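Consider the following assembly input.
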Amino acid sequence: MKRLFPILSIVAAVLLAYALYRALVVAPADAQQGEVYRIIYYHVPSAWTAFLLFFINFVASIQYLVNGKPAAKSAAKWIVIAIGIMGVVAAFLPAVQRQLAAIGMLPSAMATTVLAIPAFYFLIGKWFPGQKLDVLAVTTAEVGVVFCTIVLVTGPIWARPVWGIWWAPGDIRLTSTLVLWLIYVSYLVLRRFSNSAQTQMLAAALAVFGALDVPLVYFSIWFFRTQHPQPIIGGSSGGSIDPRMLDTLVISWMAFLLFAFLVCWSRFRLELLQREVEEGYAMESLAGSAETKSSLNERAVNRTPVERRAV
Amino acid sequence: MTFASVALATLKKDIRLEWRSKDALNSMLFFSLLVVVIFVFSFDPLAEESRHIVGGLVWVAFLFAAVVALNQTWARELRNQVLDAYRVSPAPANALFLAKAVGNFIFVGVLEALMAPLFVIFYNLHVLGPAWQLIPVAMLGTWALVVNGTFFAAMSVRTRSREIMLPLLLFPISIPAVIAMVAATTSILTGEDSAHFYIVLLLTYDVVFTTASLALFETILHAE
């Protein structure tokens, strides 16, 4: 495992460089926007990565909340299974198929996407038991905010020459991404400001509230017309995109995903180590208090917050 | 002690406390009065323009004022370890939550009833749409602010610098509700659009977040 990290880092660096080369040199200029459009090779993969990380954060938070409550846990399990089954069935209903065809999406693509929800749910529950769920939640929220910031910065840079404005207020995608970013920044602020044992529960609850909020934001600006370009990838009517562009976008996304994975990995290990150290301090002071209560009282003035909590 | 009697007792206690001290209500009233006066100075609009902006101003004033009341909801219980007593008592946690939320709803509702005439006077308002719809919008909007506010106040009371923490948590989550409240109020005042869609949206928001709060409040209260 220890050798895997440097190897993957080199792979990620090479892949990012290759993606940049493809984005700037290989991919042809856009028919209408010219060279400006090339920023999508950073904008779109960042957005997909950020949304994926926030989704993992949401799943980890749910798992953390139901952990240790058998009734809630089995209820959550069956809800997730029901979502998976209903999504797959719905994808092949004629009415839904017409809707999907309108945005150029194959039913099988939707079914696979929906199936990812239970898959993620069970794999995360299996691979990250107990406190590791919370460590995963911190990690994905932090890295997700970074990628979401990239999206919000590259978006206006592109919009200014193409739309003539930096920001389109009331646009459905722009507003929901911004609100998502705000929610996760408040999530990180909450974690930063409450360094006690309750933080994990509070943060998990906030993540659930945030996830409930995003669809409502989406509907609240339903009436406004969206200026954001519609996706033209992954559909049956995808004839309008040059294959070189599509390849570049996918390679770029792979590079971003690998990069995000590596950052998450090292952040995850760092957080685990930090908790181990804190636990060590706490155990030490507990042992100390059992042995010599009087000497601990002398130290009470200089105790770190961790030790103080343990006593 | 049943669910209803616990909730009713807590609500009565909160209202009695507020009636005797009038802490929350007075500070909210004066705060929103200041907001109104500052807005009047900074915009000075014509009657026609004011119809388009007052929806936003009203709700910004109420949102900021509500935070004042919400911050005191649980901070009040920290004195003499009342909150710890709640946590060890066998009383249902959701009864406590509902009582607090209804109490805040009443306080903010009183504030709105007192402040609404001031907005009419300062901005020369004349409603062009169906005015009665402002009542459901106000009630649903207030509940949307208050139910999440009570929940997040219970969260922020556990953190350092809790007074600052509440708006930081509450405002991002409230954005869809605020959009709906402002859009509904503006469309009623100007009479240009139907507010129907936004009232339904507010109702959805209220149902979703009341359910979520009730489902998670016990976890938050007992989080250790």
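Chain A touches chain B at residues 65, 179, 182-183, 185-186, 189-190, 193-198, 201-202, 205-206, 208-210, 212-213, 216-217, 219-223 (CB under 8 Å). Ask yourself how this observation constrains the way the partners meet.
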